[in-house]
Structures are given as structure tokens and as C-alpha cells.
Amino acid sequence: MSTIWNKVWGEDWQDGRLPDEVKGKGKGKDGKDGKGKDKGKGPHANHYYIDGKIYDFSEWRYIHPGGSRFFDVAYQRDISAAVHAYHRDPDKLKPLLAKYETTIDEDNPRDILAKHMNAPVFILPPDFDAQRDVPTYDWDKGFMKALRKKLNTPEMLQKIRRADAAFEVVTYCIMAFHLFVCFPALYLSIFPWWLWVALQVATRTALAGIGHYHCHRAKDDKADWAEGLFDIQYVGASCVLADGHVMLHHLYTETPADVKRTVFNYMITLPRLWRIPIFTAQKFGEFFTGHLLRFGAHWDPMKPLLERLRKGNRLMRLYMNSELFWAALCGKLHWWLLQFAVTMWSSMFQIVSSHDFEVVREEQEYRDLDWGVFQVQHALDTYVTGIPHVDIFLTAGLGCHRAHHVLPYQKSGFANIASEPALRETCKEFGVEWAPARNLLLDRFLPLMFHYWTAPAQIPAAPKPILIGGAGLGGFVREHLQPELLVKALGDVCRGFTGASI
């Protein structure tokens, strides 16, 4: 069985090891060799590609108002979209960029792009090559300029600031209610088991949505104080969201470079009858000890990226475990385990509910795209109640998802709601269809559950996936009769508890 995976991803697929050209071995505490040079990263360790030019941010990354974390593993990537989409007025950055522009020996600036974008190989499509597969955007096509003209007025900016402030107030209220549900309400049996589980799922979903927005904020330990809340739904890891979500998913949405497209790849490699129990057990292991051990590792190759997170995220993981132990002390461990399973699976499907990742699209070149138009067309708004300010929490922040993708720098879901009328108006001006929002349960959850729980065990590959057991009933039987696959799955569960699979 391992030979099948090796043909698709190569021998490094199993443990997520990076290819040789992006490994960073022998680094000191700050990721450097003690002489101010990044070891193991090659001559372009501080080079970033923006709009056809190369910039050396070895100095700027540490004085960047948004923090250095967004630069930590983004070297040798095309971060043009980060400059244009993550700043309210990117034209003001031109003098700064001119200061840090540099020259290189390569004939083509794109030659510096790391083939695998300094990301684990197994989360990228087979045969991925960043120089070829990373999308490019044409920022002069007018959509974003027209939208920013509407949003950057004094009245609109004040409205967005008020929306952000209101979002913070609601954040504190939800946090307080979640603590009440987890501890005194459980001890006193204030709610019946089914309502307690439902409240757990709802508050964890809301808090994860809040954490999601904080992951987009400046990494200064102030604006992003609640980013660790993303972890509370047992699936995500805010320690990697600044790169995997903010820098890879949002910049390269719905293209081969979008790592979020592969978020379910591991699950569908499991035989169908083992899929739910094995995956649930692995996620429990990651929650219970895996992340804590990972944060405590002294020889972590990602240490420069995780250094700050060891403070806040470890505390969040300890708190999450305290909820489990409290439930056990109250004699209601079975209640906690039920809410864990429901919350975990609900969160898994919410991750992909905001995009049509399950749709197989024709191959195309993603060149000179209009950022605003492309984001509107490739993000989905979802709803539960139809009340935007409520749904933004019930959908983990995805109720106003198109505005979030077009304007990823905004600090809150309420700010996106406030900005949506201007976005709709701009779409109308440019003839862009505004599709209706989709019902989260009926239109997204149920179809996704059926697809991912019943799809044949397979290895994603181009042009079509490799079915592990083959097609039909015979394939269903054969995929369950491969002992090496079961051994691997059980090994993955063990690695979840030890932190090795994270």
C-alpha cells in the first residue's frame, strides 16, 4: 500500500516532512545560525516575491506592525495578494516596498519561488509546483478600487470601528456563557443532557468563529488576544492558522495552491467502516495530549513560528483539558464525550462548507484574475436563522464569508456584515452575480456528510483519485481487507496522542 502513496506524493508523504529545498536544519533559538543568517534555507531565506519583483524583508519583518509571524515561513513565496488584499490602502505601501526591493542572480524572479511553498508536502496536490500553480491577480482591473472607494470614507470607517467594538463585547458575553455551561451548569445539572450538548456545540462554534477572525489580526498579543479560541472546537490549530489559513488558503483560494482543499484528504484514505471511529480517535488524541506535547517539544523544527504561541496556546489547551476532567469529576464524562464527537464532526464539515471543495473543476490556468470578482465567485455565504448578526456565530464566522474573502484584513464578522452592502453594490456595477446564501444544514452539512462518509477509500491524485480497493462492491470489500492500511491507521491514532501527526 505504501508504494501507492509513494507514487503520488513520494516517500516523505507519511510524516509530513518538507522537501530538501525548504528544510531548515541546524537553526538556533531565533531560527538563525548566530551570525544573522538563516541556516538551511538557502540564499533566498529573506526574499519574497511581489508583483514580479523581489524584496528582502530581513529587517522589515521584525518591525512589521502586523508582526513577524506572517513572514516566518512565507519566504520564497508569491505574497503579492498579501500586500494588496490585507491592507486597507495598499498604495501607501509603495514607498516602503521601494526601500526593500533587491536584485537577484536568477533571470526570472519567479525562479526563487520554493516549489512546495515551505509547506508540508502531503497537504499539496501531487506534482505541485509553486512557480507554475500559484495564481496571479491583476490589481488594476478596477473592482477593488471601486469597492475601497466606498469603504474608505470617514462615515464607513467609523461604522466599521463600531462594528468591531460590538463584536468584542459579544465575544466576552459568549465566553462567559460558555464557562457557565461548562462548569456550574454541568455540576448543578441545570440543563438536561441533550440541551447541554447542544449549548456546548453552539458556544464552541461561536468561539471558534471569533478565534478565526483573531487569526487574521496583527500578531502583537493584543489585537489577536483570542486567536487561541479557534482551538476550542477540537479540529483546528491556531498555531498554524496564520500561515496555513491566512497566508495559504486566503491568498490562493480555490486554486491548486489552496491547501484547504486537501483538508479532508486524510479522512478519505481510510476504509469507510473505519473512517468515523479512527478519525474521531485521532482527533481526540491530538486534543488530549498531542498539542500539549507538540508545544512542549524542545527540538521542534517549526520553533520560530510557534515560539510566541507556546505561551497562549498551551494555556488554551490546558483549559480545554480542564473541561474534560471537570466533567469526569461531576460524573458526566459520557456527556462530555458526546459533545466532543458532535462538536468535532460539526466543525470538520464547517471547514469546507464555505467553499465547493467537493466539486471537481476543469483544469485551468489561474492568471491575471480580478481579486474581488474571483473571491465573490469562489466563496459561499451560509445561514442558519437568516439573521446575519446571529448566523455569524452559528456558522463559525462564515455567515458573511464572501465579504471576509474579499476583505480579509477586517477584524470582525460584524465589520464584514457592515461592508456587505458596498460589496453587493460593487458586484452590481461590474456585472458579478450575487448568489443566494446557502442553508448550512440542508445545503452543506448533509450533502458533505454523505459525500465524505460514503466515498470509496482513495488517494487524491490528478487527473482522478486512485481508489484503494477499486470500484463497486468488490472495492468496498477489498479496501477493508488490507491489514497494512489498518496498521497505518492505528499508527496515526498513536501519533495523534504523541503529537507527531500534527
In short:
Pfam families: Cyt-b5. With 502 residues, the protein is mostly helical.
The number of helical segments is 20
Find the count of extended strands (DSSP E, 2+ residues): 7
Shape: globular
- Major sheet summary line: 3 strands, antiparallel
Strand order of the largest sheet: 1-2-3
Account of the 3D structure:
This protein has 502 residues and is mainly α. It contains 20 helices and seven strands. The chain has helices at residues 2-9, 80-85, 94-100, 130-133, 143-151, 154-182, 184-187, 193-215, 238-249, 272-296, 303-306, 309-329, 333-353, 371-377, 388-394, 401-406, 413-429, 440-454, 472-479, 483-498, and strands at residues 47-50, 53-56, 101-102, 382-383, 438-439, 458-459, 466-467. The strands form three sheets. Strands 1-2-3 form a three-stranded antiparallel β-sheet. It comes from Prorocentrum cordatum.
Keywords:
502 residues; mainly alpha; 3-stranded antiparallel beta sheet; 20 helices; transmembrane helix; transmembrane
Produce the secondary structure layout.
Layout lengths: L1 H8 L37 E4 L2 E4 L23 H6 L8 H7 E2 L27 H4 L9 H9 L2 H29 L1 H4 L5 H23 L22 H12 L22 H25 L6 H4 L2 H21 L3 H21 L17 H7 L4 E2 L4 H7 L6 H6 L6 H17 L8 E2 H15 L3 E2 L6 E2 L4 H8 L3 H16 L4
Parallel strand pairs: 4-5
Antiparallel strand pairs: 1-2, 2-3, 6-7
